[in-house]
């Protein structure tokens, strides 16, 4: 029996009394992935990206482990909810226009101490001030650095379009704007190198593309390490007691951790290891988050139909954004139908071994987005479900 076949047997036994659709997290794999992230971080603390987890119980579990500290959140409403729930170090990774949220933040000492907001433009400070509604608490601020690799005088750009702050001078200028503005405290710098941390460099069947990605990422790491260090020096001239410099992501943990200027690493997807993280040479994780759909039809030889399945991930549309049929091995989508909203046909000789009611296990393309489809996660240890915990959705929250 292969390792994957053994996993299928375990998951089927663990969920035998549960009707599909159902989602699980294999805690043995989750914990092993957490250990690997800590190893790769080389002693620097890992701030957990909540959008890649979206389950309070699992955030609590990983933050109880040595090597993890703090949360990187994705909306202000989520940040305030987490802070009210007892998480005392929440860095909002994206600028917000949530005026009601800012009013709440500025009026509550506990929330103001726990939450740090993201800024890359003085106009965002204006919005926060206009939203205070009389709240006088100091708002903690982090500046985001644009990590994109620019070549040929800026005519070629590789990297996500995030912050407009690219040079040390630009970041220092906004740092001065924050420092001289009453009611704000600059405490950190963040830089997410998505073109390094979030792009696989070993795509199956694409050797030339994979080599090009590796060359690009090596050049991007060198350029960013030098520029990030210069940015930190420039900002420390304005704010000598800067608390943190955050960088990285699951795919670049060890490379970002090697930079002296970086004090902490961000990671989250590496806990669940979705399908998009199969294409990396820098690490190998264990799939920990899966969902199962039930076989409801057998339309013919080599075909079964499962209920649901149309759970595409965000990003540029493409086949790599779809969940992948994982267990049993050997199933594939019908290219004429793909993953359907209500039903999904699956092809392959192994389909003939599946009976009505059997489970087919899938891996989502991304990590936390799976939790927008399920109210609960069943936590599996060995071949048993040992706990069932709510996702954000299960607690009544869909923050985006």
Report on this model:
- The strands form 3 sheets. Strands 1, 12, 13, 14, 15, 16, 17, 18 and 19 form a 9-stranded mixed β-sheet that branches. This protein has an 8-stranded parallel β-barrel with strand order 2-3-4-5-6-9-10-11, surrounded by 5 helices. The protein has a two-stranded antiparallel sheet with strand order 7-8.
- The protein is of the alpha/beta class and 400 residues long.
- The longest helix has 32 residues, at 207-238.
- The protein has helices at residues 3-14, 27-41, 56-63, 76-84, 99-107, 109-114, 122-131, 168-179, 194-197, 207-238, 253-257, 269-272; strands spanning 22-26, 46-49, 68-73, 90-92, 115-119, 139-144, 149-151, 156-158, 184-191, 244-247, 264-267, 289-300, 303-307, 324-327, 332-333, 343-347, 359-363, 376-381, 384-390.
- The model has no long low-confidence stretch (mean pLDDT 93).
- The protein is globular, with a radius of gyration of 22 Å.
- It has 12 helices and 19 strands.
Helical/strand content category:
alpha/beta
- The multimeric state of the shown protein is single chain
SS elements, strand count: 19
Helix tally?
Answer: 12
Could you describe the largest sheet, including whether it forms a barrel? 9 strands, mixed
């Amino acid at each position: 029996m292969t390792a994957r076949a053994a996993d299928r047997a375990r998951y089927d036994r663990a969920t035998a009394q549960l009707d599909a659709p159902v989602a699980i997290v294999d805690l043995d794999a989750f914990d092993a992935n957490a250990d690997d992230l800590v190893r790769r971080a080389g002693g620097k603390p890992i701030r957990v990206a909540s959008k890649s987890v979206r389950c309070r119980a699992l955030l609590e579990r990983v933050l109880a482990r040595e090597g993890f500290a703090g949360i990187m959140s994705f909306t202000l409403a989520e940040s305030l909810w987490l802070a009210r729930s007892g998480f005392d170090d929440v860095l909002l990774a994206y600028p917000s226009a949530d005026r009601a949220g800012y009013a709440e933040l500025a009026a509550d000492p506990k929330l103001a101490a726990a939450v740090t907001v993201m800024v890359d433009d003085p106009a965002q400070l204006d919005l926060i001030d206009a939203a205070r509604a009389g709240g006088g608490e100091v708002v903690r601020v982090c500046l985001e650095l644009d990590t994109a690799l620019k070549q040929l005088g800026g005519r070629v750009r590789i990297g996500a379009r995030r912050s407009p702050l690219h040079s040390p001078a630009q970041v220092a200028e906004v740092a001065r704007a924050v420092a001289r503005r009453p009611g704000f405290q600059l405490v950190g710098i963040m830089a997410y190198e998505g073109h390094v941390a979030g792009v696989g460099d070993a795509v199956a069947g694409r050797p030339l593309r994979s080599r090009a990605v590796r060359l690009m990422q090596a050049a991007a790491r060198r350029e960013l390490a030098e520029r990030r260090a210069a940015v930190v020096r420039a900002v420390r001239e304005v704010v000598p007691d800067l608390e943190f410099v955050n960088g990285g992501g699951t795919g670049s943990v060890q490379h970002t951790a090697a930079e002296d200027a970086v004090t902490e690493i961000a990671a989250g997807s590496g806990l669940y290891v979705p399908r998009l993280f199969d294409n990396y040479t820098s690490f190998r994780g264990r799939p920990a988050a899966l969902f199962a759909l039930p076989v409801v039809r057998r339309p013919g030889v080599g075909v079964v139909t499962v209920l649901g399945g149309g759970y595409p991930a965000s990003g540029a549309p493409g086949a790599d954004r779809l969940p992948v049929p994982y267990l049993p091995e050997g199933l594939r989508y019908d290219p004429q139908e793909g993953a359907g909203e209500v039903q999904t046909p699956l092809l392959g000789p192994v389909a003939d071994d599946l009976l009505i009611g059997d489970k087919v296990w899938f891996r989502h393309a991304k990590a936390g987005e799976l939790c927008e489809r399920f109210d609960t996660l069943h936590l599996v240890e060995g071949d048993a479900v040992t706990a069932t915990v709510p996702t954000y959705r299960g607690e009544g929250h869909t923050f985006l």
